Amino acid sequence: MILMDEEGRKIHASCVKKWFPKFKRYLKEDSSIYVKKPNVAPNTSKFKFAHPESKLNFYHDTIVKDCENFSGSAHGFHFVDFNTIVSNNILESNSFDIIGHIFEYGHMDTSEQDKSKHKMLLHLQDIEDTKLKITLWGHNEYYMHDFLANNNRLAPVVIVQFARVKFINGRPFSSTYFDVSRVFINNDIDEITIYKNKLVSENGQQLSSSGIKMIASKQDTEHDDFLKNHLFSNIEDLFEPLEEKTVIIVGTVKGIRQNIRWYYLACSNCKKSAKEKESSTDKVDGSHEVAEIVTYECANLKCKNIKISVIPRFKIPLRVQDNAGTLTLTLFDQEAKKLFKYTAKELYDKNKKLGNNLELYPMELKVVLDRKLAIKIDITRYNVDNKSNLYGISRLTENADIIDELEKNNLTPQPANSDSFLIGSSDVGSHDTKVLKGQVNCNKPIKFISTPIELKRNLATCIDIDEMENLSTSKYPRLSPPDEQPTPLLVPKKEK
């Protein structure tokens, strides 16, 4: 909870589950209460919504009663002007309130399965004509979408209470914060009425819906991206790329490569890869001993001399199979969010706390196995010049209609009695190696694996880590995060 007294001062309060039934009927948004004998504790939260030093806890002996004569402000807004935010003069660790009117808004982004991760971008403007971008998440996004759909003659004045900001490469990115933030749209409250009147008196500007426009989308719709804009390809056509292009494939996830790390440590400033950098300093206890400290260095030269922190981000090597072959594709953080309930940081912290080996992929990632995906892949100049079939996943979808249409238009099923061999792979997650042989019919051509090179590469990437005793460095590097130098892929000597 965030509680506010009659003088407008706010404090963070909480109640543990076992005592909650005692207070439940009193704890309603916008209700007024008396609180007697709460416990006062230090506020150790990294992100603070209210009083920065203290918070309240409700315990078994705390007394809560209804209050009928509260005389303070209804909402207790403390507005921050837009210029303070865009000029980086606000702390990332504190929430703030803003008021402005919409002049542009974006499409709903519902690509995530979790509705709390659906979002909408707003472009707001204040009375001084300063502009600010803010992202609405979850239920606040749906509230805004419904308002815009049903009130097209009203230009909205918006208040966002308990917003937050993050600065990335020096640029502010404002947003709502989970369920804490509140959004008011053209509500009949004093603050919005005063804003509208001030806008007219100072700027002579009467708000009208005709001045609002939709933000042009920088990304094509999912339908166009997968079905109209790019060529379809089979996996076997990607083993030895001949030209730069973007292709679409349809494949089923058959495993996760166990011998390649499933995450990387990303710079908190630019999201590029970062590495540990050990240094030492004198201990402050006067013992003249040296203390070893660990800092991080970003691979991005623009972050040089900037003190950074790191956060784990997904870099998952998926084994994807279609009816023509199997290929390892690297799934990075942005698209991984569509498939998993957990973030990379949550899985990293959870498994580190449990003492699990962080080099082995967590069991929570197994939910991706046997899921059929349409996948967008960029074949780059690097792939062509080095004959490298190491690709990242640019975009993916599980949309059944899109996958059905792709398969209907592009996949030709083999005759039931055709002579063909399908050589399975010993993928992690499925250790069964199968060889399937069709009925022999001399009147039909026999189709084998495309080339010996293809077969050798497939087998090399499928060999279990326990079998890789004699290793040598291949000229084919493993895919790395953006702007990171590729590292060599280890393959058995006997493959050569």
Automatic annotation (TrEMBL):
Residues 1-67 form the Replication protein A 70 kDa DNA-binding subunit B/D first OB fold domain. It holds the Pfam family Rep_fac-A_C. Residues 249-361 form the Replication factor A C-terminal domain. Residues 473-496 are annotated as: Disordered. It comes from the Eukaryota. PANTHER family: OS03G0429900 PROTEIN. This is Replication factor A C-terminal domain-containing protein.
